[in-house]
Amino acid sequence: MFLGQFAHTLDDKFRLALPAKFRARLADGIVITTGTGKCLHIHPVAEFQTIFNRVSALPLLDEDAANVRRKLFNSAHDLVPDKQNRIVVPLALREYAEITNEVIVAGAGQLIELWNPAEHQRAQQVLRERELRPNGWSDLGI
């Protein structure tokens, strides 16, 4: 599982050094794609295969299923970290998440999120506000 947050920077070639504690799970390759809330999702390639299989089994002519396929697959890139455990974050994904130089690498359980620091701070504020609501997270059953 992926846990914790790390502040990193992209180098001049837009490479991101993966946090040391995540490297072993990502050594065989990753899939990076758009996430929710202007972040990027990084999945170990083997786990993304499970997602791929589930989404691919959805009806081809169903509009909602087509939108899910587009969201996940159109922006996805499969990558293998280099010998220094770095990946190049593709331009289209950097633009989507508004990542220029600084990036927050956040463990999110089964995946990793990459955030522009200002967007991450906004998302964290939304979480804090939700915690203060009378039912908090009870609508999710937790």
Walk me through this protein's architecture.
- By secondary structure, the chain is of the alpha+beta class.
- It has a single domain (5-116), classed as Chemotaxis protein chec (3-Layer(aba) Sandwich).
- The protein contains five helices and eight strands, in the order ββαββααββαββα.
- A six-stranded antiparallel beta sheet has the order 1-7-8-4-3-5.
- A hairpin with a 4-residue loop joins strand 7 (102-107) and strand 8 (112-115).
- The longest helix has 16 residues, at 117-132.
- The radius of gyration is 16 Å and the shape is globular.
- The chain starts with a strand and ends in a 10-residue tail after the last helix.
- The mean pLDDT is 92.
The termini sit apart by 19 Å
Q: Supply the number of structural domains.
A: 1
Which architecture would the CATH scheme give at its second level?
3-Layer(aba) Sandwich
Percent helix range: 25-40%
| Strand order across the largest sheet | 1-7-8-4-3-5
Mean pLDDT: 92
Main beta sheet: 6 strands, antiparallel
- % residues in beta strands: 15-25%
Secondary-structure content class? alpha+beta
The number of helices is: 5
Attribute tags:
142 residues; alpha+beta; Chemotaxis protein chec; six-stranded antiparallel β-sheet; two-stranded antiparallel ribbon; 5 helices; 24% strand; globular
Topology:
Layout lengths: L4 E5 L5 E3 L5 H4 L3 E5 L5 E5 H12 L6 H12 L2 E3 L6 E3 L2 H7 L4 E6 L4 E4 L1 H16 L10
Antiparallel strand pairs: 1-7, 2-6, 3-4, 3-5, 4-8, 7-8
